[in-house]
Amino acid sequence: MSVKAINAYQKGSLKQDVASADPHRLTLMLMQGALDRLAYAKGCITRDDLKGRAENLSKATAIFINLRDTLNVDVGGEFAENIFSLYNYIIDKLTEIDTENGITIIDEVSSLYLPIKDAWAAISEEDKQIAYSAAQGENV
Asked: What is its main location (predicted)?
């Protein structure tokens, strides 16, 4: 099977996953996407692929900006404010990357963010339903 066909299949599969995902799953997909882009950027740095590094870091940064901007600090309180600050720190660190320090910064950002993503993934179905019910109650 050609690389082009595999990529087309993966894009189609991703679109289907996004269309059928609940908000929790969409957030998890974004979190994983950011970590994937960081890993790709790290590989590009080791191969001296400046274009690939820039593209992947740009996509990772855009994901972190999106995740940060969707936080509701009014509802999440101090916890949401802390996560907001973490996103700002990550975004700042990613904009500091150059050829000398890229892998070190990517490793730092990944090690800071992986526990957040893992904790999000560990949220039980029952807790998700409680959160969805509470959110719907607020919108009424």
From this structure: cytoplasm
